Automatic annotation (TrEMBL), chain A:
This is Circularly permuted type 2 ATP-grasp protein. Residues 78-451 form the Circularly permuted ATP-grasp type domain. Pfam families: CP_ATPgrasp_2.
From TrEMBL, chain B:
This is Alpha-E domain-containing protein. InterPro entries: ATP-dep_Glu-Cys_Ligase-2 (IPR051680), DUF403 (IPR007296). Coiled coil: none annotated. Residues 2-302 form the DUF403 domain.
């Protein structure tokens, strides 16, 4: 028999309700699970690990000396979402990303929202993610974030909250796809029984989105990677292959008379759309970092002339910045005249003196994050932190308040997960991927990350998090 | 049409795998020769792999003596020796990793699994088993290439790497014998020629084609000039010419011209002429030609920046 540990007090568990009853959408799964012998399931997990290793779905961890590549742990218990909840989420995501794209177009053009005073102008204009070079540049369909990865969590109240909007180079979609493939291979009987909404067509939706991003006829699309030492290289190669396009590095491209070409065995070929998986500052050494070996000299000039499309656009970071995040509900009202469907997490902006003093007085309860941070690096989780860590953060906050925001410690929902002590609740999140072009496209579900350490709220794979398959049940 | 850098990775991926296989073949022949009881040139036989891979200096810097075991450790397993078999497998894997999206999953899995197994090899691995394992992995790679890769430029560059490396290696392998002949060892040694044929999987072919015991002239003819033996220099050059003719390229004519010149030479020359000229000198010239051809191929297709 499996040992299934009870849910944690004060958290929403995706499978078990507070009274210990199994939630409706998990009932068949749990029945199936209890019918399997622990040995069989152990074998399947072992098989999954072998397969992931052989396929080489690995992840490079920065700052780890042994450091080459390791697997992201994969958990075989899926996170299941009922159709009705997903429908709400999907509408909310479309709304949110539409507002963010409208915001980006606005701040690089007429700046209505700044003039209306809803978002403080200095907040945007002095943000180092704001790219002056983007001012006045017209992009097809006014799309800036062609690919957005929105991190959503479920709080103890059972409601969904957006934790952050990733509009630069969000990653993880390949794990979503590989996890599904793995689950179907390991447990085909489950898929025969459950109507799980498919996600496998994501690469083709991505290709459609990228082709729509330009006015060029029959465009040549490429994926641009920093190279095979990058932590997400597997994903870059995977997406290029799945779309049937070239995977290029900066050195494969060159610019001549403001057009971008790739070097091929048959000579130069013009490139129309670059799905770039490198940050703004590495794109073009003539404009950004002169020491960047990853970029292409002259790329920005070609971009400004409209001869090539970058996806995502340059300068989207200003909209997913944690200092901009608190204003997203206002953006939705301002641009779409709609009420936000998805909740924002209440956020204190430490650049405001009164909010800073509240934060300093409640450090033990709050999560403090760097405004530009990502990957779970450089954050304080008050309830989990030691005295000296809190003191250290207090000093950092006082030295540079504008660099931080704080949020209440959210009780991320939990999902039963295979761990050493059996099947126990672990905290999870969900990153759906929103594709924007002429149309908005979303595959049902997303990447579900899980914090494997007991009680941990940090799900990032760079911090030892794992992943799960996320199932949206068809209605 | 494909990215020059992609073509470069594909080409070197298969060159390194072919090199690993040929190193295993080379070491195999040296080991069997040095084990022969009547072998007078055991030392010369053993140092031959170092000489033809141009790693004698590195070896001497690391080891005082030359024994079968230290040679095997250095040439087969030493990850710090960039020319070792294990290093070749690693480099092949790195090149494959860089273009994993451009090769079939099964090919990537094959190369990755080879490297993962190589990393786990015990230091006391059985020599013969190890050579067999390397050859087997290489056979698997060729099988997966033949059976899964879409026929097009990617396939062409994978095959091109194989044959350029093989042309070079076959010439070098024969040169082991040639150098030994020049230094007066084992001139008409039946066992030595048989070992060489076996190393190139050509022994059965030899028995089928020739009635006489293996000797300098017959072996030279088979290994250099036979269009039918898959590992001969001539067969490799025929393959290279055919592949080059299929790849679309802006300035590929020089590479094609040079490849055809080598092929024509091998087409018309006779084995007795080669021996009169001096086998070692003849092979040396062909090695220079092949090296130049490699540069032409690089200029025509692979140069990235």
């Amino acid at each position: 028999m499996h040992r299934i540990h009870p849910p944690l007090a004060g958290c929403f568990d995706e499978m078990l309700a507070d009274d210990g009853e199994t939630r409706g959408h998990y009932r068949d799964f749990l029945q199936w699970l209890t019918a399997q012998s622990p040995e069989t399931l152990g074998q399947r997990r072992h098989e999954a690990e072998l397969l992931f290793h052989r396929v080489g779905i690995t992840f490079a961890v920065y700052g780890d000396d042994s450091g080459s590549e390791r697997l992201i742990p994969f958990d075989t218990i899926p996170r299941i979402l009922p159709a009705s909840e997903w429908q709400t989420l999907e509408v909310g995501l479309r709304q949110r990303v539409a507002a963010l794209n409208a915001f980006l177009h606005d701040i690089y053009h007429e700046q209505h929202i700044l003039r209306s005073g809803l978002v403080p102008a200095e907040q945007v204009m002095v943000n180092n993610q704001y790219q002056v070079a983007m001012q006045g540049l017209d992009l097809p369909h006014h799309t800036y974030a062609h690919i957005a990865g929105v991190d959503v969590i479920r709080h103890a109240d059972g409601g969904y909250y957006v934790l952050e909007d990733n509009l630069r180079v969000p990653s993880g979609v390949s794990y979503m796809l590989e996890n599904r493939k793995m689950m179907m291979r390991l447990f085909p009987e489950l898929f025969a029984h459950y109507a799980v909404a498919p996600v496998e067509h994501y690469p083709s939706l991505l290709h459609d989105t990228l082709r729509e991003a330009t006015h060029a006829d029959n465009p040549t699309v490429v994926v641009m990677t920093p190279g095979h030492y990058n932590s997400a290289y597997f994903e870059h190669a995977f997406l290029a292959q799945q779309m049937g396009v070239e995977l290029v590095e900066g050195r494969d491209l060159f610019v001549e008379r403001d057009r971008v070409y790739m070097r091929t065995t048959a000579g130069p070929r013009q490139v129309d759309v670059i799905y770039r998986r490198i940050d703004d500052i590495y794109l073009d050494p003539l404009v950004f970092r002169a020491d960047s070996m990853l970029g292409v000299p002259g790329l920005l000039s070609a971009y400004r002339k409209g001869n090539v499309i970058l996806a995502n656009a340059v300068g989207t970071g200003v909209a997913d910045d944690k200092s901009t995040y608190p204003y997203v509900p206002e953006m939705i009202r301002f641009y779409l005249s709609e009420e936000p469907i998805l909740n924002n997490v209440p956020t204190w902006q430490c650049r405001k003196p009164d909010e800073l003093s509240h934060v300093l007085a409640h450090l033990e309860e709050l999560v403090v994050k760097e405004v530009h941070g990502a990957g779970g690096y450089g954050m304080l989780i008050g309830p989990k932190a030691s005295r000296s860590e809190i003191d250290d953060f207090r000093a950092r906050l006082l030295a540079d308040p504008a660099n931080y925001i704080a949020q209440p410690t959210l009780a991320l929902s939990t999902c039963p997960t295979f761990v050493d002590e059996g099947i126990a609740p672990r905290h999870i999140d969900l990153r759906p991927f929103v594709l924007s072009g002429k149309d908005v496209r979303i595959v049902p579900g997303g990447l579900s990350r899980v914090a494997l350490t007991r009680g941990s709220l940090v799900v990032n794979s760079s911090q030892g998090g794992g992943t799960k398959d996320a199932w949206v049940l068809e209605a | 049409m494909m990215l020059s850098r992609t073509a470069d990775h594909l080409y070197w991926m298969s060159r390194y795998l072919e090199r690993a296989e040929n190193l295993a073949r080379l070491l195999d022949v040296s080991f069997s020769l040095s084990l022969l009881p009547q072998s007078k040139g055991a030392r010369a036989e053993m140092s031959a792999p170092l000489v033809i891979t141009e790693t004698l200096k590195q070896y001497n810097a690391r080891h005082d003596t030359l024994s079968a075991q230290t040679l095997f450790d250095f040439m087969a397993l030493d990850r710090d020796n960039p020319a070792s078999i294990v290093s070749c497998l690693k480099l092949a894997r790195e090149n494959a990793h860089a273009v994993r999206g451009k090769i079939p999953v099964e090919m990537w899995e094959n190369i990755n699994a080879t490297w993962l197994q190589a990393k786990k090899l015990p230091s006391a691995v059985n020599v013969g088993e190890f050579f067999d394992w390397v050859k087997e992995r290489s056979h698997l790679f060729r099988g997966v290439a033949y059976g899964t890769v879409l026929r097009g430029d990617a396939y062409s560059f994978v095959r091109l790497g194989t044959f350029v490396e093989r042309a070079d290696n076959t010439a070098r392998l024969l040169d082991v014998k040639a150098s030994l002949m020049d230094s007066g060892h084992g001139v008409d040694d039946f066992y030595a020629w048989s070992a060489l044929l076996r190393a190139l999987s050509a022994y059965e072919a030899y028995l089928e084609l020739y009635r006489e015991p293996p000797n300098a002239q017959s072996v030279t003819e088979l290994l250099l000039l036979s269009p039918r033996l898959p590992r001969s220099l001539r067969a490799s050059m025929e393959a290279i010419c055919k592949i080059l003719a299929q790849i679309e390229g802006e300035d590929s004519r020089v590479a094609q011209r040079d490849a055809n010149a080598i092929r024509n030479e091998l087409h018309f020359v006779r084995a007795d002429e080669i021996l009169r000229f001096g086998l070692h000198d003849y092979l040396n010239q062909r090695l220079i030609d092949i090296n130049t051809l490699g540069e032409r191929i690089y200029d025509a297709y692979l140069k990235a920046a």
